[in-house]
């Protein structure tokens, strides 16, 4: 009755490359070497790829179970990069030559606003009910608030129901719980690649579910197309390919706004993908964790919850969290919205492992309720700061002649550094990443996102100006082949930190109105 | 979908204990009885069919589904045959187990059904494993026949309930397991949530002495948590942190445990992993130590919530080491765990082909309130070492030892652990600080591999940075803990315990008089006639009918019917009211037993 894991055939899934944990950890490379070495095994790599990490893995632990060994491997491959960064973290005063982190997708621009809001007296209530066992789905007051919040910001045609909301400690947990209750061990989800690599680990650790990458191309094929565009044809081909390998695909994961592309799906595209899923009776998990981080108004983002009619509402599951949009990844608050009561109930019963403190639940409800603050203070300011930071980094890249993608959503720019890889191999990509790290700037390489073309890198720009400025200078030095760096670069060295800010701000003013795609190639 | 509402409603009808409910009526016609007895292969098909028709309706295109269902129904049929022909004890002696002709698949299914049914009784309102009593203990009157038919009725109902759950084509099989599990308690929890006792607003509401929470010190805790030092905020708290937990918290936990566990050497923060609650720690630990289908030995009765911890996510099984209430040669007190019993249980598991990877101990024990002596602890650890078993020790109640004459010894206080690389200790603030809503649990292990593997769960089972900060402040405040919180908490626990035990003494109810934990383990066998788990459940429902929630022993996999766990760590007012309700129910039960006794001889 119990699926006993045979390590060879169906232990976890996909490649736990460095990116497979958080972005933070994603940038190191122990796992990667193993991964690169087994790359040639894959069939039809240009269309899709089935993750299977155990190919390069062997466990010799006397204390762990076989799955425990694999789980530990996830940790180890993450740990190496984590250590490198955290042993030498940049600090303006204490460690100015430390590593600047442009790898972790966190919004560090608005802590001042958040800290002020979270310290107001309404946030600090302590009452016995908050200290005791909650309803595992989340306190009702919070679920009601989430439903109201999503109704408003997702522009849902009808009010969303608190009954359909389950609160968990972050979207990682939502992925884990959904994978477990929707799939058997060894079954799979489709996911367009490049994608946020940590999902690999989320669906694998408990769920033992694997990911099938739908590989997208940077090349533009027609007048109305864009780089890395997802199409129904690509989904169909990947699904067929996986089926032909005997892999049971249970669902499709969409990230919208996309990470790492910063792309967003139009309502028509979204509708097509949902119809595709319906045709094949696939669940669709839509991760909208960046939905309020669309800083270009012209982009016209539409949540899946805003659609008049979902093709298959019982198989459409939406996740959102405060991690990105409210810059509090450390708060661990995520939520699932699904009309499917079976799924909601099943996920809820896993919530005893994914609960969050009653006091934090109270704070989240207060935060989401404060529409005035969100609309008039937080969002405008956050978007303005994101835009300025984006403008600055985009300008730096332009100056270097580096093509990149960015459509005005998310915290990152997807940069094409292929011209710096003479052979165009993942090995070179990793070496370049290593050179960045040696020059004290942490970025994420494309392989960590399962990108099939070597040479793409993700740069996170949602950081304070002085760090961003320093980070970009180090990036430039690496790319320009200057290798003395490692400390404060000459341009900034003679100036006080304050001047440094001004310097950056000025520079970003010089490069207004970015955000449109630069043609790739 | 239709399958969602259906079972819940049906079960509620079944749970309401309505005497007019046909299945509970003692004047059940004999016809029904024969039908029920002959149910093994054909007649039980009926209810299943009906249910399925309701659920599937016009979805005739799902031929594959139908095939699965047919197969399942066959399996259910077989299981019913097995169950009805099995002796009353589910926990058969080994010999009999081996005589069981069931195929491996059937047995696995049966085990799952039984697992689900057993553990569904968390709230006691949920599904309960039906135990057809064909054994010699039962008197052979008409009442017994009616009872039998009722039990079979329940059985069929419950199995078909499970089958209905299988119809959900949106969930994976494990998703269905998980969901069925939740459903069995969900309605009950909702009922309770909707009608909770409140001093002013709802004095007629449910008093919950079933969930182990310490509500005696919410005043102290609220005051402490409201102080300004708790509200510090810095950017690191809002950002991704070390997956093992914020370094400041792990350092504090190491200091805290060094002090309160009286560790001979300073404990190392590197050996600490913090996750969102002890359930998470246990679940992660079970996952990295055992592969699916492997097992942990567990002395029973024990806290049933851990069944879920091991089963839902990790598919790790718990092999009970059944303890006896009777004092025998090898034991000095009721329910005493001995190495002999561990050896025997391990042997039985091995003979059954179960791979046992570890031993799970709870100390102070839940629900017994027992504290293991240093010698016993050492013996258990030595036993585990002999067989290369991991030992997971849950010391969740270590600071809730309120009787000064009881000496609790943490496993971390031992000079040298027999097998440090296989000894893993779990602690959290839920019970000792009465803040189960905080969702905090910590693992302490010397084994770096295990610590690393468990750390991988840091994102799935992580704690908010804000919460980690508050916990750190709390654990740091040794002055407040030692001078204010612990003395007050202990004296309040003592007073509440005294109040309850005096009541029990007055009622001449036997109980284990221990000085730790938040509960009393008592024996209500006197009130069961006959002494079966069905009667235990009925008595439990009687308590519920009178708006009192207790936990029946079955929930703890206790092998003797009649035991209940009562949580006494509630405020005096609800406690008093609860005992009043308790008394009423027992008086009523006694009256009924007397009537029954008078009626029985008349029938013969």
pLDDT averaged over residues of chain B: 78
Pairing-aware structural class of the strands and helices of chain A? alpha/beta
Whole-angstrom Rg of chain B: 25 Å
The gross shape of chain A turns out to be: globular
Which shape of chain B, going by the Cα principal axes? Answer: globular
How much of the sequence lies in strands of chain B comes to 5-15%
**Strand order across the biggest sheet of chain B?**
2-8-7-6-5-3-4
Number of strands of chain A: 14
Tally of separate helices of chain B? 20
What labels would you give this structure?
heterodimer, A: 521 residues, alpha/beta, 8-stranded mixed sheet, 4-stranded antiparallel sheet, 12% strand, globular, disordered N terminus, B: 604 residues, 3-stranded antiparallel sheet, 20 helices, 12 strands, 9% strand, 1-aminocyclopropane-1-carboxylate synthase homolog (inactive) (chain A), PyrdxlP-dep_Trfase_small (chain A), Ethylene_sulfur-biosynth (chain A)
Structure description:
The complex is a heterodimer of chains A (521) and B (604). Chain A has helices at 7-10, 30-37, 66-86, 111-118, 128-131, 140-153, 171-182, 199-204, 232-244, 267-279, 322-325, 341-349, 358-369, 371-399, 426-438, 465-479, 490-493, 497-510; strands spanning 48-50, 100-101, 165-168, 188-193, 210-215, 249-255, 283-287, 316-321, 334-338, 404-405, 412-416, 441-442, 444-445, 456-460. With 521 residues, chain A is of the alpha/beta class. The model of chain A is unreliable at 1-45 and 483-521 (pLDDT under 50). In chain A, helix 8 (199-204) links the parallel strand 4 and strand 5 (210-215). Chain A is globular, with a radius of gyration of 22 Å. In chain A, the strands form three sheets. An eight-stranded mixed sheet of chain A has the order 1-5-4-6-7-8-9-3, with helices on both faces. Chain A has 18 helices and 14 strands. In chain A, helix 14 (371-399) packs across helix 18 (497-510). Chain B is of the alpha/beta class and 604 residues long. In chain B, strands 2-8-7-6-5-3-4 form a seven-stranded mixed sheet, sandwiched between helices. In chain B, strands 9-12-11 form a three-stranded antiparallel sheet. In chain B, strands 1-10 form a two-stranded parallel sheet. In chain B, strand 5, helix 15 and strand 6 form a beta-alpha-beta unit. In chain B, helix 4 crosses helix 6 (104-119) and helix 12 (278-289) crosses helix 13 (305-313). The longest helix of chain B has 32 residues, at 572-603. Chain B is globular, with a radius of gyration of 25 Å. The model of chain B is unreliable at 1-63 and 83-166 (pLDDT under 50). At the A-B interface, helix 3, helix 4, helix 5, helix 7 and helix 12 of A face helix 6, helix 8, helix 9, helix 10 and helix 12 of B. Chain B: Residues 207-568 form the Aminotransferase class I/classII large domain. Chain B: Residues 1-41 are annotated as: Disordered. Chain B: InterPro entries: Aminotransferase_I/II_large, Ethylene_sulfur-biosynth, PyrdxlP-dep_Trfase, PyrdxlP-dep_Trfase_major, PyrdxlP-dep_Trfase_small.
